[in-house]
What does this fold into?
Amino acid sequence: SILLEKWPEYDKDLIEEGKITLIIQINGKMRDKLEIPAGLTQKEAEGLTLSQKKVKNLILGKEIKKVIFVPGKLINIVI
It folds into this structure.
């Protein structure tokens, strides 16, 4: 009978996402999206972001003052 069966066990590995969509902002305005593996550090995310063609064109010849990184959500480049 189903009444005699055990309740299923919780498995944390099954609910973790392998990839996330990182929002790329420049001066607070959304400019692009990037599909990246979950759990990247700020340096890794920053490197991937700055290698994007669209981002390169927008920051060309400008000095980056600050990079704001919210893990798993967004990266904001302040110029």
About this structure: The two ends are 65 Å apart (CA to CA). The mean pLDDT is 90. Residues 42-50 form the longest helix (9 residues).
